[in-house]
Amino acid sequence: MSEYRGFELLGTDGAARTGKLYLTHGEVETPIFMPVGTQGTVKTLSPHELKDIGAQIILGNTYHLYLRPGHKLIAEMGGLHTFSSWDRPILTDSGGFQVFSHLGLNKITEEGVFFRSHIDGSRHFLTPELSMEIQNALGSDIMMAFDECVPYPAEHGYVAQSVERTTRWAKRCKEAHKKNEEQLLFGIVQGGVYADLRAESASRIREIGFPGYALGGLSVGEPKELMHEMLECTVPLLPEHKARYLMGVGTPVDLVEGVYRGIDMFDCVMPTRNGRNGMIFTWDGPLNIKNAEFSRDSRPPETDCSCYVCRNFSRAYLRHLYKAGEILALRLNSYHNLHFYLTLMESVRRAIREKRYEAFRQEFLLRYQGR
Fold this sequence. Notes:
The protein contains 15 helices and 17 strands. By secondary structure, the chain is of the alpha/beta class. Helix 8 links the parallel strand 12 and strand 13 (about 210-215). The relative contact order is 0.13.
C-alpha cells in the first residue's frame, strides 16, 4: 500500500477517465460504484459477500451512525472498520442530505442545522465542526464536507444564498479537519440546476482546495437532461487530477452517462433497495421478479452472469421466495444487483482503457433500454 493519499489519473477516452484512489485502507480503481451501508452495513449482505462481488469501497452514513449507536461508541470499539469488520476503504457522507431531507424536522441557521431525530424525536444541532468530529471518530478513508442540499425546484435567489452558506461551511470543515492526514476530506459543489451558480460554487470550493470534489444536489427530482447539463457545465471546472464524485446517483444508465461526462465515483441505494422490492437489474434492463410471467421461468436472472445467484437459482425460484416473504429473496436480489453494478463499472473501466468508451456507451444504452 502506497503512503501517498489521493487520486491518480491513469487514462482518458474523451471526458471518460480511469484512475486510482490511494486510501488508508487500500486502493480503489475508478470509475467506481460504492454500495451504501447506511447504518454500518450494506442491508442483508455480509462483508464477506461484498468482497465476493468485488466491492472496493462502501459508504457509511454520518447522520444515522451519529443517532445510533453514536460515533463515540463506535470510536471506543476501534472505529467503523473494526466495528463492522470491513477492512477495505469507507467513505462517509456529512449527514447533510439526511438532515435537509427531513422537511419539517429541521431549521437552518448560519452555525448549523437544528433537527429532530426520525427515531425518537430528540433534538440535535449538527454543525460543520460536529460533522467533522463524527466522521473523524468513525475513521472513514474519505470524509465529506457539510453542505446544504437544496431541493428541486428552488428559486435562484435561495440557491445563491445556499451556495454562499455551503462555501462558508466548507471552510469551517477544512479548518476543523486540518490535523488529520489519514482521512481525505472532499469538498461539495452545489448550485441546484443553475449553471451560473454551479460555476460559482465550483470556483469557490476549488479555491478552498480539497483532494477530491463532489457534485451534490442532483438526482433530487430534476429531469435527466438537466442533470446532464449541470454535469457538462460543472465537471470541466474541477481540477483534472482530483477525484470527482456524483453523490446519490443512480441507475445503471446514470452511471454510464456520468462516466461519459467525466465522473469517477458514484453511490446509490438503488441496487439494494430495489432488490428488496423485487427488482433485478440485468444487461437487458430491469426485471420485476414479482411478475407472474416468471413463475415457471427456469432461466437464471442473467444468462451470462457469473454471480452466485445466477449460477444457482432460477427466476421462478426467486419469484417464489419473494412471494413467500422469505428473507433469502432480499439477500439474493441484493447480491445479484450489486454484482451487476460492480461488473458494469469493471466493463466501463475496460472500455476506457481500450479507447472504445463511446461505442460501449451506445451499445449499453441500446441493449439496456431496448431501443
